[in-house]
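Thread title: Can someone regenerate the structure for this chain?

I was given the following input by a collaborator and told the matching structure tokens would be attached. They weren't. Posting the sequence so someone can regenerate them.
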Amino acid sequence: MSETPPPTSLYHERQHLELCAVHALNNLLQQRLFSKEELDRLCGQLAPDSLLNPHRSLLGTGNYDVNILMAALLTRGFAAIWWDKRRSLTSLVLSRVHGLILNIPSNVTLGFVSLPIRRKHWVAVRQVGGSYYNLDSKLKAPAHIGGEEDLRKFLQEQVAQEPCQLLLVVEREVEEDGSWLLPL
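Best answer:
Regenerated them for you:
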């Protein structure tokens, strides 16, 4: 990733508690649309009879699962499509993709100390002003990725890590017509 400074209009929330899903959604959509309370409400809707909700941490500090991200995106007219890592990223039609969400392994830190524990972390990637940016809430500022080929290289490096997962965020119509993927 290059050192190009991000545009001043780039929205970027920083990590708080275990709310990386909230931050990834807001960073992807480039405004504060979601809150912990809203994602907690979605948890309750998806598991209304559960004593312990399976879609978030036991302590209620966040750590939302993919079902909550997908449900939240649906409330805003978007869909999340799981990317099959067996496919080549060259078959992805980036002009039809609103943004990307990665679920990557991340070290747990306490203050300045990094623990030998890895947990999953939600990260948004989005094109703004003609360039792609890594909008990871653990970063002090968005990291410039570059153009389409730079993005494909970045994504390939990320999905090569186990157990990284990639979600394409597209408008509902794009999900339905399948135009996010080049035909075989």
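Helices lie at 20-29, 36-46, 66-74, 148-159, 172-177.
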